[in-house]
Design brief:
Structural class: alpha+beta
Helix content: 25-40%
Radius of gyration: 27 Å
Order of helices and strands: HEEEH
Number of domains: 2
Distance between the termini: 66 Å
Oligomer: single chain
Shape: elongated
Length: about 100
């Protein structure tokens, strides 16, 4: 392998890399410039939660094989609801203000 044959290949590799970086930058810029639906408070299917959090009434989170349910009361305060088994009697839904602020 001669030193003269290596240089054109090296330039070709660097040009290909520069072209790929340019294409990535152009695609990312196009994604940032394009207006997203949902900017006015409506649903946005691109997000993990497709509706604004203030419109949610309950969230369920599964962790380590257990289901945790968080709900809002009529005033909009969050509280940990848990899961009902059906054998429970009447229970109260009273949010703890300190815990609601943390949630």
């Amino acid at each position: 392998m001669s030193a003269g044959g290596l240089r054109p290949r090296l330039v070709t590799v660097w040009l290909a890399l520069a072209a790929l970086v340019g294409a990535i930058v152009a695609l990312e810029h196009a994604d940032l410039v394009r207006p997203r639906p949902g900017g006015d408070g409506n649903a946005d299917p691109h997000l993990l939660l497709p509706v604004p959090v203030d419109r949610l009434g309950a969230i369920e989170v599964a962790h380590a094989g257990r289901l945790h349910r968080f709900e809002r009361d009529r005033t909009g305060a969050w509280f940990y609801h848990g899961v009902h088994t059906g054998s429970e009697g009447v229970h109260a839904h009273t949010p703890d203000p300190a815990l609601a602020a943390r949630i």
